[in-house]
Design brief:
The protein is built from 20 helices and 18 strands. It is α+β, with helices and mostly antiparallel strands.
């Protein structure tokens, strides 16, 4: 399996401790600047948090949150002696002002240390006091403590290590991670130790970028989010008591030194505020039709699909552990002959019982098919596919050949995939073309009638839950009235897409299209929908040619009343271009918030250490002081 098959960013994977962290790794970001010393001055006030917005799952918050951070008390200013207005003479006397200034500077430091103690500058803490000794990073204008860094690092590194135990990643958890390499999405080979650190920095940069901008726009947490924080922290306190530890010691044992209650509270507060702002920011990132077309023209191969038929013929792997006996050379020689026999898709299908005999026998023996004939028929039904040039699960040489202008429809060629021990036999069936299928995007708020069985309708979140229910006319009428009241509320407000999305978050029974579900969607969004995927009434309204952006209405289906908001109806390739342009703009926004490492404090942060065994459930991290 390709390493990126497991999505830790928009499809997050839960770590051993139940934490979900989005993977926002972008190796194109410049390496954060590393300071040689920590003689810097942090001169910022704690942010004032303003109005609230709706949350979204990009940040995958599953733990407690934090309050606004405190800035450490600053040393009292010491007056600096002023140089005499008369210019100093050359020679020894001319150097005197320099020594005067140095003396004053040393005196100021001594005075500060006398008041605050030397630990102010050198000692980390779990209270989120931002003295220089506790600040591992400065991201934008926001200081990040050692404990905060350790929290994110633990979630990300443990996520990889845990899933390595299940075979998702090629990591030996008993060996030094700095001596094992992996390949990034951009093809760069780095160590796993570096990957853990890079993705920790990326995650912190991502959250902080949205958090700082959110604060600047007056965004705050909702009351429900504040309650969630308190509930989560109370739960941690109970767990700590059961374990016979103080809550800070309990948290530190899980996430690393200097990570305490204050750290988790701050982390969650920042995440909630950031995610509350995220959707608003996304909707503000507009893309014009002209931008979409220009982007497509510049990146055609990424959005054009090429059609072909293929056979996948396995050969014996180097370790000889599989059931396939034929060598790579034998399979390649046979493919030389197969190429000469193929002039149509039907010709390729006829070859399946012979060319794929070993694979068929293996499938039958493992119970995937009842006999060789049915297995061959199953393979024949699935040999025609289409892909874009961005396809990551196929060998690059084959993709390059399919998209090459010199490769004509009807050409046949084979390619060896040594990683997976197979040879792909390809037959090109069509030239690359853009996907012009019409797709539409809308938001909706589903209002289902309330039944008399007293079931908790909030728990029955999907449309599927209401499909089999029968309602009285009175119940339908009540649902219609509620739908009209919500639409009136929207029309009496700002009438923006974002305001509609907020109402969907509050009122929609279809929680799978909101952040309450597991789909990753927000605000009742149904985006890039092809005709035939939704119920007829919903689809007829959405595909009406007279629709324009911002149109609203109410339609009734078997599921209830849908309050509709129209976004667009466009071709699939343009929809894909728009999505990628928005992602590109988001990456530019995040990378504009610079990271600065502080060497002394960073030397105290957590570094994953190998375990004594390969038990995937054991902790694989220790603190390196």
């Amino acid at each position: 399996m390709d390493e990126k098959d497991l999505d830790i960013e928009k499809e997050t994977a839960s770590s051993e401790n139940g934490q979900d962290i989005k993977n926002t790794s972008d190796s194109s970001n410049p390496e954060p600047k590393l300071e040689d010393n920590d003689n810097w001055k942090f001169d910022a006030e704690a942010p004032t948090l303003g109005d609230s917005v709706i949350a979204n799952d990009e940040f995958e918050i599953k733990i407690p949150e934090s309050s606004a951070y405190e800035t450490a008390p600053r040393p009292t200013k010491t007056a600096v002696a002023q140089q005499e207005s008369t210019p100093a003479k050359r020679g020894v006397k001319g150097d005197k002002p320099l020594f005067i200034l140095l003396t004053v500077l040393v005196a100021a430091i001594i005075a500060a240390c006398a008041v605050l103690g030397t630990f102010y500058y050198t000692q980390p803490n779990s209270d989120e006091r931002m003295n220089p000794g506790n600040v591992a990073l400065t991201v934008g204008d926001t200081p990040v403590s050692i404990g905060m860094y350790n929290y994110y690092y633990t979630c990300i590194s443990q996520n990889y290590i845990t899933y390595a135990g299940y075979g998702y990643y090629d990591i030996d958890t008993t060996k030094d991670y700095s001596q094992q390499t992996c390949t990034t999405d951009d093809g760069e080979e780095i160590t796993w130790a570096q990957r853990f650190e890079n993705e920790t920095l990326d995650q912190i940069q991502y959250i902080t970028a949205y958090y700082e901008d959110a604060v600047a726009h007056g965004v705050t947490m909702t009351d429900e989010q504040k309650k969630n924080i308190d509930t989560s922290l109370d739960g941690l306190k109970a767990s700590a008591t059961s374990a016979g530890k103080s809550v800070d010691a309990y948290i530190a044992s899980t996430y690393g030194d200097y990570c305490g209650t204050a750290t988790l509270r701050k982390m969650l507060e920042q995440c909630y505020v950031a995610e509350n702002y995220y959707q608003q920011k996304q909707l503000d990132t507009t893309v014009t039709t002209e931008e979409e077309q220009k982007y497509f023209d510049e990146n055609k191969e990424d959005y054009e699909n090429v059609s072909f038929a293929y056979l996948q013929i396995p050969f014996a792997s180097d370790n000889g552990s599989d059931a396939i006996k034929e060598s790579k050379d034998t399979v390649m020689s046979k493919c030389d002959e197969y190429v000469k026999q193929i002039s149509s898709v039907d010709d390729m299908k006829k070859l399946i019982p012979t060319a794929c005999k070993e694979a068929i026998d293996n499938y039958v023996n493992q119970g995937y098919a009842k006999d060789a004939t049915s297995c061959a028929e199953m393979l024949a039904a699935n040999i025609e596919v289409n892909i874009t040039a961005k396809e990551s699960g196929f060998i690059k040489e084959a993709i390059d050949w399919l998209f090459d202008d010199d490769t004509k429809v009807g050409d046949c060629k084979y390619f060896a995939d040594d990683t997976n021990s197979v040879v792909y036999l390809l037959y090109k069936t069509a030239d690359p073309t853009a996907d012009t299928t019409q797709v539409y995007s809308v938001r909706h708020i589903l209002i289902t009638p309330e039944s008399d069985d007293n079931s908790d309708s909030s728990e029955e979140s999907s449309e599927e839950s209401s499909k089999t229910k029968e309602y009285t006319q009175e119940q339908w009428d009540a649902a219609e009235q509620k739908a009209n009241e919500i639409l009136d509320e929207y029309k009496n407000g700002e009438q923006t897409e974002y305001e509609f999305a907020k109402l969907a978050e509050e009122d929609s029974a279809d929680t799978e299209s909101t952040s309450k579900g597991s789909s990753g969607l927000y605000g009742g969004l149904c985006a890039g929908v092809k005709k035939g995927q939704m119920v007829e009434e919903f689809e007829n309204w959405s595909t009406d040619s007279s629709r324009k952006y911002g149109d609203t209405g109410i339609v009734k289906s078997q599921y209830g009343y849908h309050i509709m908001y129209f976004i667009e109806n466009t071709e699939k390739y343009l929809y894909d271009c728009k999505s990628d342009i928005q992602k590109q703009k988001e990456d530019e926004f995040v990378s504009s918030v610079k990271i600065k490492k502080h060497k002394n404090a960073m030397s105290k942060t957590k570094v994953a250490q190998p375990t004594a065994s390969t038990n995937s459930s054991s902790s694989a991290q220790q603190t390196q002081q």
